[in-house]
Amino acid sequence: MTTGSQAPSQPSLQEPTQMKSPDTLSPHPPGQEPSARPSANRLQQWMQAVGNRLEGLPRGPRRVVQWTVLLFATLLALLIISVPLDFGAQCVFAIGCFVAALVLRKQSGRFPVLVLITLSLTVSMRYMYWRISSTLAFESWLDIVFGYGLLAAELYSLLVLTLGYLQTAWPLRRKPQMLTMPPSQWPTVDVFIPSYNESLDIVSLTIFAAQAIDWPQDKLRVHVLDDGRREEFREFCDNIGVNYLVRSNNRHAKAGNLNEALKVTDGEFVAIFDADHVPTRSFLQICMGWFYKDPKLAMLQTPHFFFSPDPFEKNLNTFRSVPNEGELFYGLVQDGNDLWNAAFFCGSCAVMRRTALMEIGGIAVETLTEDAHTALKMNRAGYNTAYLAIPQAAGLATENLARHIRQRVRWARGMAQIFRVDNPLKGRGLRLGQRLCYLNAMLHFFYGLPRLIFLTAPLTYLFFGAHIFQASALMITAYVLPHVLHASLTNSRIQGRFRHSFWNEVYETVLAWYILGPVLLALVNPKLGGFNVTDKGGIITADHFDWKLARPYILLLLLNVAGLGFGIWQLIHGDPNAVTTILINMAWTLYNVIISSAAMAVASETRQVRSEPRVAAELPVRIKLDDGSVIEGKTLDFSQKGIGLRLPAGASIARNARIEVTLFRNAQEKVFPAVVVFSRNDMVGAQFHELTLRQQSELVRLTFSRADIWANNWGKSRPDTPLKSLREVAGIGMNGVRQLCKAALLQLRHWRSVRRTPAPAAPAATAPALDNTLEKQ
Fold first, then answer.
1. Is the pLDDT of residue 765 over 60?
2. What are 314-357's pLDDT values in tens digits?
3. CA 84 to centroid of chain Cα atoms
4. How far apart are CA 768 and CA 714, in angstroms?
5. Secondary structure of the chain: what % helix, strand, coil (to 5)?
6. Nearest alpha carbon to residue 265 among 227, 229, 220
7. Active-site residues: which are they?
8. Pairing relation of β-strands 189-195 and 297-301?
9. SS3 readout for 626-656
10. Cβ(417)–Cβ(368) under 8 Å?
11. Region (Disordered) spans which residues (predicted)?
C-alpha cells in the first residue's frame, strides 16, 4: 500500500518511555513534503552533526554539556521575557519577531517549526509576564472580578498552547512494519464488534468487512457483542458464520461488554471496531507487524475516518473542503503523542495484545472514556502504545448537532473523571512526556468557561466601564497583538491541512456552554453521569433551525451586537480620551460576533433524505443491459444499497431498466443485479436488487473494504491560509445571521397563524370533571 510518506523507516519502540531520535523522523505529513531549501538543509545538517558529536561524548561530560546549555537557555529566556521596554522598544521587538516568523513560515523542514514555536512562546511568555506584573492594579470590585477572571482564562489558554506545541512540534509519522513470517505463523486475532442500539443495516456492513480482512481464516474470529440482545442479530450471525455473544446485563456499558467477551475468547490479539466502523481488508497486515517489532507494544491505534459529514460539515457545506473537528487529533496530535509513547486508545479501529490487556484488568470501567483510560493504564504498567496514521477503517459521523453535542459531553465528562480518579500528574509508571500529553488531553475539555469568558470579556468595558487591563491602550496592543498573531501563525504552520485557522474557536463556541456543567460536576463528583450510546444513521426530513440548541449562540450574538452599539454610542458621546480603548474593545467584540454567528449557523440543520450516506469514488465498472449490450463506465459513488454511475459520452440507460453491474478489484470481479432509479444525460443512479448475503459480502469487499478510497481522502484539504480562513468563517457567520432571521420570520408567521385560528368549542364536561365541580360546591 502506498502511504505517500517519504520518511525513512522508523525506529523500534524498545525504549518506550524515551523520545525518539529526531534523525529517524519524517519532517512532514504524508503528501506534504515541500521543496527542499539548501540553506535550511545545511543548517539542519550542521545541527545534526553537533547532536551526533554530543551523543559521542561519555555520559558524564555529555550531561554536563546538556545541563549547561539548558541553564544558559533558561537564563536567556528569562532575560528576554522579563526585560522592561517602553512602547517604542516593545513595538520594534514585536515587529522584528513577527518578520522573522513570516520568513520562517515559508521554510521547509522541522527546524523552522521549532524556531517558530520558540518565537511564539517568547512573545506569549513576555506578554503574560507583563500582564501579571503591570496590569493588575485594580481599583474596584468590578475590575477585580472581571480582570482576574480574564487572567485565569488567559493562563489556561497559554498552558494549553504550550502543551499543544509539545505534542505537535515533531509528529513521529510511523510507517507500517510488515510481517516477515509465513501466514501459518501469524497469530490468532479476535475481532470484537460491540453493539447496543444500532440497526442491523449499519452493523452488517461492519461484520461483512470484518470477515473480509485478509488474514488466515482459521486465525480470524469475528464476534458480534450484542448488548441489545436482538433475535434478528442472532439469526444474521448464524447465517453468515460469525460468533454472536450476549451477556445477562449491561453493566459498565461498552467497557463491560468488551470485558465479558474477553472472558470467553482466547485470541493472542484483539481488534475492536465500533458497530459503524468498517475495516479495510488490509487492516491486520498493516498493523500487526509492529507487535513483533516491539514485544512491549500493547496497543496500536489507527485513525477514525468518516465517510459521512458531521453536523459542521453538513450544515455549513464544508465536507472535504475544511478539515473536520477530529482531523487535528487523528492527523497530528496522535502522531505527536506517539513520539512520547503516549498514543491513546480511541475505542475503535485498534489492535491490542491480550496479555497486556488482561494484566491491567481489561478495559477500564472507572470512567466514561474507557478507551483513553485503558491506554493510560497500559502506559503506567510499562507497556508501549503506538499510532499508525493510515486510515484502515471508515465510519459514520454523527448526523445532527444534538447527537454531536451529546457525544462530546460524554467525552468531556469522561476526561474530567480521569483527571480526578487517575490523574496523570500523580502516581508511578509514566515519564514526563507521557504525563504532559495525557494532561493536555484532559485540560482540553475544560475550555468551556475560558471560551465563554473570551466571548464576553470586551463587553465588561463597553457595558460597565470595567478596566480589566490597568494599562494604556497602546501598551495593551503592543503586547497582545504579538501573542495572538504568533500563536495563529505558528499553529497554521504546524497544523497545516488538519485544522484551519479560526475554526477551533467555532468548534469550541458551539460546545462551550454544553460541556461546562458536566465537566465541573465531574470534578466535584466523578461518579455522576452515565454512559450514553451515540445514535448513528437516520434521516432529517426537512431543513430546520434548532432553536433549543441555538439559544446560547443567539444570546452571545445579541450581547456582542449590543456591545458594538454601545461602543458606537460611546465614540460619539463618550470620553474623547478613551477612543483608542473603545476601538480595541469594539474590534474584539466584532471578532466575537463573527465567531458566535458562525457557531449559530451550525444549528441550522439541513435536510438529509438518505438513511445511508454515499461514498464518492471513481472505480471502473461494467454495465450489462437486458439486451446483452455492455457499457464500460465509472462509478460516481456507492452505498450499501445503491450506486451512482457515469456513462461514456452518448450512452444512456432508461429509468426502471434492469442492469447487471460488474465491479473489479485487481483480478477479482463480481456481478450485482440492479434497477435504474435515476437517469439524466450520462449520469445514472441504480439500486441493487435482491442481493443474497454472499453478494452483500462481496459488494463490501469491493467497495467499503478498499483502503485506497480512504487513503486518497486523508489529509487532502487545502493548506491553511489564516486570512482566507477568517473570510470563510465570516461568510459562514453572515449566512448564520440570515438563517436566524429566516427562521425567526417563519416562527413569527407560525405564531400568528396559531393565534388567528379560532379555538375549538369547549367539549362537554366529563364525569370526573362534573364530580369535581360538585365536590367544590
1. no
2. 999 998 889 999 999 999 999 999 999 999 999 999 999 999 99
3. 41
4. 66
5. 55, 10, 35
6. 220
7. 227, 371
8. unpaired
9. CCCCEEEEEEEEECCCEEEEECCCCCCCCCC
10. yes
11. 1-39, 757-777
**Phi and psi of 764, rounded to 5°?**
-60, 145
**567: CB partners within 8 A, 6+ apart:** 462, 582, 583, 585, 586, 589
Pairing type for strands 630-638 and 620-624 reads: antiparallel
Place of cell 432509479: 677
- 8: cell is 525513512
Q: DSSP characters for 521-543?
A: HHHH-TT-----PPP----B-S-
Residues 6 or more apart whose Cβ sits within 8 Å of residue 52: none
Distance CA 298, CA 265 (A): 18
Q: Which of 415-419, 460-464, 657-661, 747-751 has the lowest mean pLDDT?
A: 747-751
Q: Quickly state the pLDDT bin for 102 (edges 50, 70, 90).
A: very high
Question: For residue 222, which of 176, 260, 279, 263 has the smallest C-alpha distance?
Answer: 279
In whole angstroms, give the CA distance from residue 111 to residue 476. Answer: 31
Cell 525504549: give the residue.
Answer: 15
Instruction: Name the CATH code of domain 615-712 (choices 2.20.28.120, 1.10.3720.10, 3.40.630.30, 2.40.10.220).
Output: 2.40.10.220
**Positive or negative, the Cα torsion across 427, 431, 435, 436?**
positive
In this prediction the pTM is: 0.86
Q: Do 188 and 267 form a contact (C-beta atoms < 8 A)? A: yes
Give the cell for residue 211.
470477515
DSSP string, 286-304: HHTHHHHH-TTEEEEE---
The answer to whether the CB of 437 falls within 8 A of the CB of 342 is: yes
Domain residue spans in the chain? 183-399, 615-712
Cβ atoms of 652 and 609 within 8 Å: the answer is no
The 10 Å Cβ neighbour count of residue 647 is 19
Pairing relation of β-strands 393-395 and 305-306?
A: parallel
What CA–CA distance (Å, rounded) separates 362 from 263?
10
Q: How far apart are CA 289 and CA 10, in angstroms?
A: 12
Residue 163's pLDDT band (cuts 50, 70, 90)? very high
Give the contacts of 363 (CB within 8 A, at least 6 positions apart).
255, 258, 259, 262, 357, 370, 371, 374
Q: How far is CA 575 from CA 431, 572, 579, in A?
A: 56, 9, 7
Q: For cell 473523571, what's the residue? A: 417
- The Cα–Cα gap between 222 and 237 comes to 10
CB 186 within 8 Å of CB 216: yes
All cell numbers assigned to 174: 510511523
The domain defined by 183-399 folds into: Spore Coat Polysaccharide Biosynthesis Protein SpsA; Chain A (3.90.550)
Task: Extract the C-alpha cell encoding 617.
Answer: 469514488
- At 623, which amino acid appears? I
pLDDT of 328 reads 94
